[in-house]
Amino acid sequence: MKIAVCLKQVPDTEAEIKWDIPKGALSRDGMDCITNPFDEFALEEALLTKENYDGEIVAVSMGPEGAKDVLRNALALTVDQVALCTDDAFAGSDTYATAYVLASAIKKVGDVDVVFCGKQSTDGNTGVVGAELAAILGFSQLTQVSKVRSVDAGGKKIVVERAIEGGIEVVEAKLPAVVSVIKGINEPRLPNLMGIRKASKMDIPQWSAGDLGVDTGKVGTAGASTKVVEIAVPPPRGAGEILKGEIEEIANTITDKLIDLKVIK
Amino acid sequence: MANDVWVYIEHKEGAVSPMSFELLGIGKQLAEGFGSNLCAFVIGAQVDDLAKEAGTYGASKVYAVEGDVFKDFRGEAYAKAAAALLEKYKPEIALFRATVMGTDVAAAAAAQLGFGLCTDTIGLAIDGGKVKMTRAAFGGNYSVSVVNEKAAPQIATVRPKAFAMPEKGAGSAEVVKESVAVSDADLATKVVEFIKSATSVNLVEADIIVSGGRGLGNDQGFAMLKELADLLGGAVGASRAAVDSEWIPYEHQVGQTGKTVKPKIYIACGISGAIQHLAGMRTSDCIVAINKDPDAPIFKAASFGIVGDYKDIVPKMIEKFKAKLNK
Ligand SMILES: Cc1cc2nc3c(=O)[nH]c(=O)nc-3n(C[C@H](O)[C@H](O)[C@H](O)COP(=O)(O)OP(=O)(O)OC[C@H]3O[C@@H](n4cnc5c(N)ncnc54)[C@H](O)[C@@H]3O)c2cc1C
Ligand SMILES: Cc1cc2nc3c(=O)[nH]c(=O)nc-3n(C[C@H](O)[C@H](O)[C@H](O)COP(=O)(O)OP(=O)(O)OC[C@H]3O[C@@H](n4cnc5c(N)ncnc54)[C@H](O)[C@@H]3O)c2cc1C
């Protein structure tokens, strides 16, 4: 079985966010970066799938040179192959352009049965790249997956559980499929020292727009159709009121205030 | 027609809640701004009743796609139908709810049409002849506005409760039946089973949420919060620390890696107010914080703060509510 996993590098949520205002994009220089937390679940699911059914894993990422780190981390966890899609032309891509580049990479890898993605990134946070990727590749679209029940590469079939509004939906789908996973689907493992040491010496292949056969008219700041036109800091919430006094009095006041909102029926 | 504003009506096997129609409210404002029509579109096995109901919430036209293939909700089937309609009519903008179902349809339809979309939108305004779509970024510390410059329609998924519900009136809509060629043979997915959640938390739709964090100390704390939530007709939320402690399942988690909620009342008990938690609830209308540490950051976001032990305060609140609400 051939398994692909999409890993995005994101700024550490604790890091100070820097904007490249004219470009409407993040300025990633000098920010501490980590693997998108949801993608750790995607990677773990890829590793579990490989262990349960045999196969090989290819991890792909689109991003600047520095995004190599997330792929190196994947190598340390014994992913078989990695590729960094990197090209100046990709900078400032919207979700469609991102999915299009990742789809081109999946096609270049070839014969992929299942692609694992995270539910969403913690920076762009749109949560749609997985679904778009499936639509572009013509693969089955399986979002919000909370459990993979079985993967049958021979029979070209996958059964998953999806956490949707009001419950769990069990879906059977044809392979190939794109599976976007949610938190809690597994417990991501950490790389061991030997893995880290080995990975630190490995070469990370880089694929440019040309290597991927990507139409540069459709990607990056110039090509993407969705443009960030404004970045603003929303007004802070007005300072609230601290209720003081005896518990009896506080409970009286707060319940009155909440009842006054006319929301409680 | 060009400039028309389209709203997708979400349902589960024909069942709707009033919330399914909420986007007709902001849709109407936009259509008035453009001097165009507010249209709804709906896909399903049988949608006549839904189509009619959309009229009562202000849609003047409803495009309806019907077929057995749409009996179960399947993102790919619905997206194919949605993309076909949007391609044919090219409205100015198409609005979907930012729910799991709405996002599945919107994202795949946008990709089939070949462009990006704005997700979890909290602001929509006409600017220079286009709709500027605003979303929160980085835990709500920034807002980012995007415009799709090249394509029509623009597509947005809109955060539930970001805009006011439209009034229900006596209006009726013209229903236009559309046929879209989607057959089972084209589809790769099949719904095998739906396991209804025992707790049936619908945090996103709840008007009142009582949420607990690590400060509850144990899972018993959640029993107390549940009593308060039930009394108020609300739902129970949680911080990640409480979920990680296994006091409550993940589906209750609010925050950057959980659910984004916007209830009318959010009561945070024993939650410190980390940026990742605030990201999921800071746009709530009224926030009540109960925390024993007067310096807890949650107080900066709170409309009302109570410094103290939740074990003292919550039972007193339950007692007072019972008395005042005659329950
Ligand atoms: C603040 C902000 C707001 C934005 N708003 C919009 C918007 O409204 N519309 C729009 O079209 N674009 C928007 N963008 C651009 C968008 O974030 C990028 O196109 C991004 O590359 C992909 O979207 P995402 O990070 O939201 O991914 P998500 O859809 O949230 O990610 C889902 C999964 O896809 C995979 N994935 C995503 N990106 C990559 C990658 N680069 N490499 C490998 N795997 C990946 C991962 O598995 C990830 O878990 C915004 C960017 C920022 C910084
Ligand atoms: C990438 C990333 C994503 C994350 N996503 C999320 C997310 O989606 N949601 C989320 O919530 N967090 C998220 N977090 C975690 C977040 O940073 C915090 O760690 C978490 O929100 C803390 O939860 P807490 O407030 O319950 O616990 P704590 O920060 O430990 O706070 C407990 C609070 O309870 C108070 N307290 C203690 N005892 C009592 C008592 N008896 N009565 C009243 N008050 C009491 C204390 O004073 C304290 O303020 C994320 C973190 C990262 C790095």
Overall tally of structural domains of chain B: 2
Mean pLDDT of chain B: 93
User: What form of chain A results from the Cα inertia axes?
Assistant: globular
Order of helices and strands of chain B: EHEHEHEHEEEEEEEHEHEHEHEH
Q: What is CATH's topology name of chain A?
A: Rossmann fold
Report the CATH C-level class of chain A: Alpha Beta
How many H/I helical runs of chain B? 9
Alpha-beta classification of chain A: alpha/beta
Distance between the termini of chain A: 55 Å
SSE layout:
The complex is a heterodimer of chains A (265) and B (327).
Chain A: E1 2-6, E2 9-11, E3 19-20, E4 25-26, E5 33-35, H1 37-53, E6 56-62, H2 68-76, E7 81-85, H3 95-109, E8 114-118, H4 129-137, E9 140-152, E10 157-164, E11 167-174, E12 177-181, H5 193-200, E13 206-207, H6 209-212, H7 220-223, E14 226-232, E15 241-243, H8 247-260
Parallel strand pairs in A: 1-6, 1-8, 6-7, 7-13, 8-12, 9-12
Antiparallel strand pairs in A: 2-5, 3-4, 9-10, 10-11
Helix pairs in contact in A: 2-5, 3-4
Chain B: E1 5-8, H1 23-34, E2 38-44, H2 48-56, E3 61-66, H3 75-89, E4 93-97, H4 100-113, E5 118-127, E6 130-137, E7 142-148, E8 154-158, E9 174-178, E10 189-196, E11 208-212, H5 219-232, E12 235-238, H6 240-244, E13 265-269, H7 275-281, E14 286-291, H8 298-301, E15 304-307, H9 310-324
Parallel strand pairs in B: 1-2, 1-4, 2-3, 3-9, 4-8, 5-8, 11-12, 11-13, 13-14, 14-15
Antiparallel strand pairs in B: 5-6, 6-7
Helix pairs in contact in B: 3-4, 5-9
Bound molecules: flavin-adenine dinucleotide (2 copies).
One flavin-adenine dinucleotide (FAD) sits between chains A (6-8, 26, 36, 38-39, 42, 61-63, 93-95, 98, 102, 117-118, 120-121, 123-130, 226) and B (116, 118-119, 135, 137, 144, 146).
